[in-house]
Design goal:
With 194 residues, the chain is mainly alpha-helical. It is built from nine helices and no strands. The protein is extended.
């Protein structure tokens, strides 16, 4: 009489074959965790002020920022570059990072690598930031400053009046607060006027 094989006994070649998908899935899973950790670390690093001001043309912006309440305040709260320029939600954050890569590119190729060249392009760069802030309803400003949470009675008469009307008029922060953290550049004269 022939001995029957037990159901859990498979030939060695079939046992190895059954383990391969599990090993591959485990490797993919671990690789995904490592990638996510490295990606998050890289994003966090590029949001640090030290990274932002590592380009020497950003030193002008940094000096201007140091003279504002966003840098130093009575309460000790400080808004850094990424607080104002990088959205918190993931997709807008990724879009911002990709668009910001062009500034690094222009620093490298020499378009804005000196204070003079930076100033020559400053109006265009500032206008793009302002337009982005208008499109997002000043989303980054509102992560700290919310009209609904403002105590208008603690504000000066002019600010109280303007903030009270801003929402009704459909205004966003940047409509009135250009030049809060950086010098507002002079608008270039139209070439038609010359």
């Amino acid at each position: 009489m022939r001995a029957s094989k037990e159901p859990d006994q498979q030939p060695p070649s079939k046992r190895g074959f059954a383990r391969k998908p599990i090993i591959v899935l485990a490797l993919v899973f671990v690789s995904g965790i490592v990638f996510a950790g490295l990606f998050d670390t890289g994003l966090a690093y590029t949001n640090e002020m030290e990274f932002c001001i590592s380009c020497h043309t950003m030193q002008t912006n940094y000096r201007e920022y140091q003279d504002t309440l966003h840098y130093k305040s009575a309460s000790g709260v400080q808004a850094t570059c990424s607080d104002c320029h990088v959205p918190k939600p993931f997709v807008p954050k990724m879009v911002t990072k990709i668009v910001a890569a062009k500034d690094v590119f222009h620093e490298i190729i020499g378009t804005i690598d000196t204070p003079e060249k930076f100033e020559a392009h400053r109006w265009d760069m500032a206008s793009r930031v302002w337009a982005k802030m208008e499109r997002s309803d000043s989303r980054e400003c509102r992560s700290c400053h919310d009209l609904a949470n403002m105590d208008l009675s603690e504000q000066g008469r002019s600010a109280r009046s303007r903030h009270a009307r801003a929402e009704d008029k459909g205004q966003t922060c940047i409509d009135c607060h250009k030049g809060v953290a950086h010098e507002e550049p002079d608008e270039p004269e139209d070439e038609d006027d010359a």
